[in-house]
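Possible regression after last week's pipeline update?

I re-ran a chain I had predicted before the update to compare outputs. Posting the input and the new output here so someone can diff against the archived version. Not blocking, just want to make sure nothing changed silently.
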Amino acid sequence: MPEGPEIKQIADALATALVGQKLTEVFFAFDHLKPWESVLCGRKVKRVRPRGKALLTELRDLAIYSHNQLYGRWFVVERGEELQTGRQLRLALHTRRHACLLYSASDIEVLSAGDVESHSFISKLGPDVLDEATTDQTIATRYAEPQFQGRQLGSLLLDQGFLAGLGNYLRSEILFCARVHPLRRLGDVSASARHALGQQTLVLTRQSYDTQGVTNDLDSYRALRRAGRTFGQSRHWVFDRQGDSCYECGETIEKISVNSRRLYYCPHCQTQ
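New output (post-update):
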């Protein structure tokens, strides 16, 4: 499933094609949404923005809510361009010049502007790490709130109600860079470790957005690429590196399962 940085990159691409443009044609694959096609056609897109791992395409008093889930994928193409894919088209937004096409996702709704914040998914979200309004203090306050202190960190960092936009690779990378063991409870780590967690949450998530998915030290990443490593082999500190040597200490990276999802860590570096 795409994480916050990838969803924001998708939102940027959609915004470039849609914002300020009138929809000349709208297609919904689901029968219960068909009546909205004629309602939305002719309206101008005001904004496209992520909310955690969901997207909102806003048109004055209405918003199209979509969530990619595991398999959904957006494509932005020139109007009339044919896309060769075995996926099923779920939503299409056409302007005079572009077509924005959502394949394979099933979580799509049309909401009134006043109902967006009360939506069953959006209303439960914590602060969005990639929102411009989210500051260092916002994150620090979240890590200090009493209701989260009994939670195991490896589980907490996947909870969109804690911080929206984090996901599986970011979880492993944040915990490694903060030097915190994934099975520790938040309330059991030191004040300095909690500070490091908050700092790395913002730094790594925003670096991943800026670099198309690189959470590793950027100098190390570039050196690895020059040495012939692929993007996938170079982009992370620990994620997806089971059995490889830690870049910091040389210890072997290990993989465990937390919340039925894979998590990677260094047993030597992550002792807090």
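Follow-up from reviewer: compared with the archived run. The two ends are 29 Å apart (CA to CA). Marking as no regression found.
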